[in-house]
Give the backbone structure.
Amino acid sequence: MIGGHEDDAIARLRYVRDMLPQLKQIAGLPHGSMLPYLLDMARVETQSEIDKRVTASRSGRDLK
């Protein structure tokens, strides 16, 4: 079971993950520009952190 504090952290990370494609669209830069690439990489890294925290919480480990 995921604790309340960790639930909040994961929810914030999911929010950030979900906002990144919108930021990419707002930037309106062409494919091949560095900023859209970095936003894509940030989304991948955010999802990785979410997965790590969910796995750790389910196994009872603390990531602090």
Residues 4-58 form one domain. The chain is about 75% helix and 0% strand. The chain has a mean pLDDT of 90. The chain has one domain: 4-58.
